[in-house]
């Protein structure tokens, strides 16, 4: 049936990845393509991320193309995923480091970071989460591990904690509860280097980093310490937040860190009793930033999202069908797509077919 396989591969070479705009064969995304005695074509596609936002479209396009091959009676499509590292990996074992930042506090940056990490892990990616907000760490509490303590591995590296399919580190798990850290810049820089390079992160597709608000020492230390794939900016719709978000974008530009997209958090509120939508902060202001950078999503105000965070459970897992959780899952998948596009741009033009 070699000729049938060649015909199926030829058909697949006409199917483009909708984000990467190249065909699946030249991208090396076809792991298996064969036709059995009953005329059923079995195709396995390795996506560039398990959180692929356009998986359904790829499946439909593959079925349509292969079904046209003479002798094919049916098409069975299965999926795997291999997250591709850029030409220069971020850290040993870590393919992508993604910074989640904001120009000001109070915009829900940590909540967005936690839910992005949990959503990517739920989709099947290997995900780490670093709480780099040293002065105001909140990730440990949101992950339900506020009282846990970080231990050391046999080779004296920090062992990240785990919850909800995500490995994470936070200063809250290293210092006494309620203790304020009064550190100057050099101490912050040393701590960030230890978090990144002296922790046993293992093999990760994505390391999501929750930054402190603003444009200070921690941001600069991270961009100097590790190869960063890109940054996500979290803002709220009102003008004062957008002005600060623009400053954060400018900081990343000066540090040569690509901005992967903008998340508009607290974008609107839907009254649970009437279903009426209220734009409490003037929804849609982030679209002005989105003229330069992708708008990854608009996340509504949601009481459950807040209460879930307070009890240590990411909303995308606790209430996956809520409007806020669906918006955050869309943010995570769209972000994963943006990362795939940038990874492809850094790789050679021709990839080996599996």
TrEMBL record:
Pfam families: FeS_assembly_P (PF01883), ParA (PF10609). It comes from the Bacteria. In the C-terminal section; belongs to the Mrp/NBP35 ATP-binding proteins family. In the N-terminal section; belongs to the MIP18 family. Keywords: ATP-binding, Hydrolase, Iron, Iron-sulfur, Metal-binding, Nucleotide-binding. Residues 5-78 form the MIP18 family-like domain. Binds and transfers iron-sulfur (Fe-S) clusters to target apoproteins. Can hydrolyze ATP. InterPro entries: FSCA_dom_sf, MIP18-like, Mrp-like_CS, Mrp/NBP35_ATP-bd, NUBPL-like, P-loop_NTPase, YlxH/NBP35. It comes from Deinococcus metalli. This is Iron-sulfur cluster carrier protein. Homodimer. ATP binds at residues 103-110. SUPFAM superfamilies: Fe-S cluster assembly (FSCA) domain-like (SSF117916), P-loop containing nucleoside triphosphate hydrolases (SSF52540).
């Amino acid at each position: 049936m070699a000729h049938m396989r060649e015909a199926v591969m030829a058909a697949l070479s006409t199917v483009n990845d909708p984000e990467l705009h190249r065909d699946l064969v030249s991208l090396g995304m076809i792991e298996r393509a064969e036709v059995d005695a009953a005329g059923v074509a079995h195709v396995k596609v390795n996506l560039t991320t398990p959180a692929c936002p356009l998986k359904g479209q790829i499946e439909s396009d593959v079925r349509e193309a292969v079904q046209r091959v003479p002798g094919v009676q049916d098409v069975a499509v299965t999926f795997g995923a291999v997250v591709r590292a850029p030409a220069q990996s971020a850290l040993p074992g870590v393919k992508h480091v993604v910074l989640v930042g904001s120009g000001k506090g109070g915009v829900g940056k940590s909540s967005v970071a936690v839910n992005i990490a949990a959503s990517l892990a739920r989709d099947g990616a290997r995900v780490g989460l670093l709480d780099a907000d040293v002065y105001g760490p909140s990730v440990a509490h949101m992950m339900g591990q506020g009282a846990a303590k970080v231990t050391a591995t046999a080779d004296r590296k920090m062992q990240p904690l785990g919850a909800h399919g995500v490995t994470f580190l936070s200063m809250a798990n290293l210092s006494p509860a309620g203790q304020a850290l009064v550190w100057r810049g050099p101490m912050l820089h040393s701590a960030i280097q230890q978090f990144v390079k002296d922790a046993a992160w293992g093999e990760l597709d994505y390391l999501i980093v929750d930054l402190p608000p603003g444009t200070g020492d921690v941001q600069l230390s991270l961009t100097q310490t590790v190869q960063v794939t890109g940054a996500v900016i979290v803002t709220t719709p009102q003008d004062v937040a957008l002005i600060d978000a623009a400053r954060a974008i400018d900081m990343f530009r000066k540090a040569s860190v690509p901005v992967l997209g903008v998340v508009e958090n607290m974008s609107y509120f839907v009254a649970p009793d009437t279903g009426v939508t209220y734009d409490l902060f003037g929804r849609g202001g982030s679209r002005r930033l989105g003229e330069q950078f992708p708008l990854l999503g608009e996340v509504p105000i949601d009481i459950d999202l807040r209460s879930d965070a307070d009890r240590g459970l990411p909303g995308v897992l606790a209430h996956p069908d809520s409007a806020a959780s669906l918006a955050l899952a869309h943010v995570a998948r769209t972000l994963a797509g943006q990362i795939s596009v940038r990874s492809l741009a850094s790789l050679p033009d021709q990839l080996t077919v599996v």
